[in-house]
TrEMBL record:
SMART domains: HTH_GNTR. The lineage of its organism: Bacteria, Bacillati, Actinomycetota, Actinomycetes, Micromonosporales. In the C-terminal section; belongs to the class-I pyridoxal-phosphate-dependent aminotransferase family. It comes from the Bacteria. Residues 3-71 form the HTH gntR-type domain. Keywords: DNA-binding, Pyridoxal phosphate, Transcription, Transcription regulation. SUPFAM superfamilies: PLP-dependent transferases, Winged helix' DNA-binding domain. CDD domains: AAT_like (cd00609), WHTH_GntR (cd07377). InterPro entries: Aminotransferase_I/II_large, HTH_trans_reg/aminotransferase, PyrdxlP-dep_Trfase, PyrdxlP-dep_Trfase_major, Tscrpt_reg_HTH_GntR, WH-like_DNA-bd_sf, WH_DNA-bd_sf. This is GntR family transcriptional regulator. It comes from Paractinoplanes deccanensis. Signal peptide: none annotated. Pfam families: Aminotran_1_2, GntR.
Length: 446
């Protein structure tokens, strides 16, 4: 090696990995051994290791040592890639997206924001002051710091990047949103699922997990849980907050993705270590690409500072549109009407399914979580009718006692009985011949 600086050592290791001399999973010698071999200080080697770890080339596993990181996971292995429709369908209820016809009209908002000269410097505050003031007034708890990012998943990605390290234990709900599980997989977290009941994450099971596995973070969906539709009650939030008070090193991350279309009121654990994500894609439009993140200043600063090296900030034009939609009486009325429409659609389809002996839940949001005798058979049966739903398996950290599929009921505006006939036929496919039956709620979440 000609260059024995930290940068030169890091470059040499990177070339060895590219050439295959150091294969994936290879354990590197200790810092002291490398330093002795190269005739440099251990500090220099440690700096090289840190730079490669930050770049994702190496993974440090505590006392186990430092290893060559695995390459990017192929797309077909992501849970998220398993959720969509396969092949042509006439009715895609797998998407989990809002009904376009129920989104507020942006025409007047775009006109009212004027010529769009909202940025005078690249170092302007990342959030429009008027929008930040409004968001703080809507926030379900006191918050130290707040910023805006490009949607709820962008928020989760950036929070995970700031607070979760390889090998950290992270607690999530079981079932959970597949892209969250994918994000945690990419950083090498050890994910533990805690079951739900009708009020949210089960307190006794959370306490047991925290006692057994010191965790870096707990991820929750406080309202319109995707996929089950459970909304956390204020009483349950207080119980969970009390438990977490006994584990001061754990960060709480709340993904309130449903926002203003959720029927339940906003709720938060409200602890000093709570990061709350407020999404606006479901309520005001996916193309706004906006979510607000509020929480401890150290976490929000880490998210905002890292963004300065990339996109810098979320479009202030879109922020201005969101501010207008949140304050314009007509737009507020449109969102309120959408919330009522989604609730009505859920009730109609749930009632029709229950009449046919199918167990399904969907207390809030736009989805139903439907129990089926066999996931694959149910999806094949529905595909034969031109209907796509999302399989339940990608949502599960560990298998549930029964198979499920997720149905985006928010996209169903009419024909509930006809659809329920098809869904029931698929759900009870292996029970045909025994007559309709009522399936008990699966243990562990309802």
């Amino acid at each position: 090696m000609d260059d024995r600086s930290a940068r030169g050592i890091a470059a040499a290791i990177s070339r060895m990995i590219t050439a295959g001399t150091l294969p994936q999973g290879a354990r590197l010698p200790t810092v002291r051994d490398v330093a002795r071999s190269l005739g440099v200080s251990p500090t220099t080697v440690s700096e090289a290791w840190r730079s490669l770890t930050r770049a994702g080339v190496l993974q440090t596993r505590g006392r186990s040592g430092t290893f060559v990181a695995a390459p990017a996971v192929p797309r077909q292995r992501w849970r998220y890639s398993q959720m969509g429709a396969v092949g042509p369908v006439s009715r895609d209820l797998s998407t989990g997206v809002p009904d376009h016809d129920l989104l507020p009209d942006l025409t007047d908002a775009l006109k009212r924001i004027g010529d769009g000269r909202l940025t005078t410097s690249y170092l302007d505050a990342p959030v429009l002051p008027a929008l930040e003031e409004l968001l703080r007034s809507r926030w379900p708890c006191e918050v130290e710091s707040l910023t805006v990012v490009d949607g709820a998943m962008d928020a989760l990605d950036r929070i995970i990047g700031a607070v979760v390290r390889f090998g950290d234990h992270v607690i999530v709900e079981n079932p959970a949103f597949p892209p969250l599980l994918d994000l945690l997989q990419t950083v090498g977290a050890t994910v533990i699922g805690v079951p739900l009941d009708g009020a949210g994450m089960m307190p006794d099971r959370l306490h047991a997990c925290l006692a057994d596995h010191p965790a870096a973070a707990v991820f929750l969906q406080p309202r319109a849980h995707n996929p089950t539709g459970v909304s956390m009650t204020p009483a349950r939030a207080a119980q969970l907050a009390e438990i977490l008070d006994g584990f001061p090193g754990v960060l709480v991350v709340e993904d309130d993705h449903a926002g203003d279309i959720a029927s339940a009121p906003p709720v938060s654990l409200g602890t000093p270590r709570t990061v709350h994500v407020a999404g606006f894609s479901k309520s005001h439009g996916p193309d706004l690409r906006l979510a607000a993140v509020g929480g401890p200043a150290r976490v929000i600063a880490a998210v905002a500072d890292r963004r300065l090296l990339g996109p810098g900030w979320s479009s202030r034009l879109l922020q201005a549109v969101l501010l207008d939609l949140l304050t314009d009486p007509a737009a507020v009325a449109q969102v309120s009407a959408a919330r009522e429409a989604y609730a009505s659609r859920r009730r109609e389809l749930l009632a029709a399914l229950r009449e046919r002996g199918v167990t399904a839940t969907g207390d809030d949001g736009i989805n139903l979580w439907m129990a089926v005798d066999d996931q694959q058979m149910a999806m094949v049966s529905l595909a034969a009718h031109g209907i796509a739903v999302a399989p339940g398996a990608p949502f599960c950290v560990t298998p549930l006692p029964a198979d499920h599929v997720r149905v985006t009921a928010g996209l169903v505006a009419a024909g509930f009985d006809t659809l329920a006939d098809v869904l029931a036929g698929a759900a009870l496919l292996t029970s045909r011949g025994s007559g309709p039956r009522t399936r008990p709620h699966p243990r562990g979440w309802r």
